[in-house]
Amino acid sequence: MLEHGLKRLAEIPRAYAAILFVDHLWVGLVFIAATLIYPNIGLAGLIGALAGLLTARLFHFPEVSGGLQIYNSALVGLSLGAFYELSGYLVLLIVLGAVLAVLVTVAVADGLWRMDRLPALSIPFILMVLFTTPAARRYTSLSDFMGLADPHQALSFPWLDGFFSALGSTLFAPQPLAGLLIFAGLFWRSRYLALLALLGYAFGYAAFELMTENPPPGLVVWTGFNFSLTAMAIAGIYTVPSLAGLGVALLAVAISVLLVLATQDFLLIDGLPIMAIPFVVTTLAILSALQKRVGLARPWLAPEPGLPEVNYERARLAQVRNGEFNSVPLLPPFYGAWEVYQGFDGAHTHRGPWRHALDFYLRDNGQSYRNDGSRLEDYLCFGLPVNSPAHGQVVRAFASLPDNPPGEVDVKNNWGNFILIRLDNGLHVLLAHLRQDSLKVAEGDRVTPGMTLAACGNSGRSPQPHLHLQVQREATLGSPTQPFHLTSVLLLHEAQSVWEFSLVARPKEGEQVQLAEQDERLARQLHLPVGRTLRYRLSTAPAGGTEATSTSAAVDADTDIELRVELTLLGQFRLRSDSGASAAFAELNGVLAFYDRQGPRDRLLDLWLLANGLTPLADQAHRWHDAPAASLLPLGPLQRAWLWLWRPLGCGLQTDYRRAWDEAAGIWCQQGEHHLRVGTLALEAHTESRFDPALGCTQMTLTTDGRRWHAELLDTGLSGDRGIPGWHLAPSSAPETATDPARGKHP
Question: Is the pTM of this model over 0.85?
Fold first, then answer.
């Protein structure tokens, strides 16, 4: 019971931290300490926060991201505590204002998110202060505390003191020491946010000096936090960090300066604080405008609000795995391995506005036909199925043109018979040169990936049977093309007779490509349903009998750790360790991919992500590439400090994987070579995983910097639930799968 109560109370410091976009217990405690420099203000804020917490629990309101209900209530208390000395009447006013702030937060947050996926920020607090401050003035026995007085404390240089005082004003503590504590908390959690706070204030201060003459004393101190918050929100929290995002943020800071000057007359004349009105109005306007853009361009909006380091890592990994932000992912529209006849910027017809296109055909022993190639039926791809490469709706389809004899072309109907599919993002996919009268769908039909649409033909401007694929914006034939790429494919390297798996591929002329169809045995043993548990014994020792040179914290030998699969309320599958660290994963298009690593350091989970973070489920996938986060390596303090200095937003490894079937052992052996070079820092790491057809990943090993970590599977199982029996299986009790006749000979 006591533990549950402490957990609830911990929501208060986390909410304080969320006021400046960081959700962390210890940072929140530092922020509370900053407000207690003025005990009157600090206690008033805690009263408001506690009243908000109790109200949210009493009414059973759903939890709002970032403690929004609590921190708006805390801000109500902080603002009133800054104006008036604590008394019974003021406490009553704080409680009522906090209760109303929670109610307004629930309504406003839901409405803004439904309307345009916009955050509520501190709108409820602003509304409450506009109501409670005049109400307090009617009670004449209240004694003024600070009001809008100009603080004169000095800590360091005047300009730096001004910045710290303005940052302290975020929590109504306009004092350099309070601001220094807040800045330290920001820096601890996110150096990039701390830098944005400083840059935003500096730019806003310069713009303020440029736009005004003889400003009211202390105006910058009490309003300068708007400049910092605006820069932090737009360039760090709600967009992926980039130079474009920083430029938009500084423009927003200049607008917020204008709003400070515009609002001072009708607020300060009545003794009302300007509060966060400039920050809120500017941020919501910019975010709403960015939502309305046509197409993808920098700054990219973050999929969900988060620390800039988190947003950057998500975007970095997504771009590595999913291609350019403005490139459309498509599956290969055929069965088997086809060769690229003409690629992007091809020499024949893929030029100028139509440069983004691929032509496919089939060849065997250097020829695309059998016999003498005089008949269409001689050509290997003629009449083969053409499949849908994506979800969408058929908006145009035509298949009445006759197929050309080999060597002939129809220049009057360049595209020949075709199908045009409108994707869910509004773009269109064109499949052209189809066989006459081969359509399997009609205009208006909904199509899904892999659905057979027609047959490959030789209609239009096509001298031999082949399939043309392109993406275009308009539904008009001949429209300019858009970038696209193939996803989850195998590319053949004929020299080595090796199939390379790629999540993102733009095959070139002469390359063979096919869909990476998953192997059911491999997919079954790597499948991670909800409730699956994997218990490993993790040990560490010097590699090769040499002394360890790593300065990272050692892991206790023979540590038993369990990984388990959970399903979040938003439908996301996550692999979670005993420490609370977790990573999301998805099984899609023949690949098991992990992403969005969260939580504390965890050597077992990080080993799993390094060794198995991107694992194709196609048995033919012999090698592939990825770029997992460098932070997954067991780096020492000096190495982390170096990366912290040179790559403040994080960076990825250069990773090459390869996998082979070990016939003697009856397992798949997957190895990874990981390379990192940042300035003079160069690291190499080697991982190895062993996949048993009955048990899944039974062993994982990481060797780097003179040290070796080894994880051995103790047992795997499934947590029981109502109607679902639980089970556990240890390697010692597993059947001999290598000679299991039911499994058959491995290809």
Answer: no
